[in-house]
Amino acid sequence: xxxxxxxxxxxxxxxxxxxxxxxxxxxxIGINIPTLCYNGRMEPYGACRMCMVEIEGQKRPVxxxxxPVKEGLKVRTDTEKVKKIRRMIIELLWPSWQAYSEExxxxxxxxxxxxxxCSLCGLCVRYCEEIKKENKLYFKGRGIERQxxxxxxxxxxxxxxxxxxNLCGSGWVASRC
Length: 177
Known about the structure:
By secondary structure, the protein is an alpha+beta fold. It is built from 5 helices and 7 strands, in the order ββαβββααββαα. The chain is globular. It folds into 2 domains: 4-93, Ubiquitin-like (UB roll); 123-176, no CATH class.
């Protein structure tokens, strides 16, 4: 029998199994927390930070897709601080990722953006590694130079597989294979 914990998310009480993430607990009661790098078929990654939430008693927001539920936790998913973080992420990824731009009132970016055709969510790289066990994709570079890349000579294998194409919101993978 699995242990259950009680917590509060946006004022609503929820019971979840130990080890469940805050994101999963929120979704179980119909609270939507936006994500970019999360996919239920893969290990949580926490890289995009779009799913940040505030936890009462903690100084800094946490990534809800990797943060485990705890007894008595009080979570806020829609505070001004959280909205500000999400707006910043949308701006940083502009124009390659505009999924939540209208909801958060973002119409452009004040930042000089690097690569514009990839949001760097890592879903394609992780799918190829975790699900397919092929490792045909990887990230190269750092900072604004970071970008996904195909292992040399893997274009045909990538194109014939194509399973990660539908994970890519920007179409980067399909356009490179």
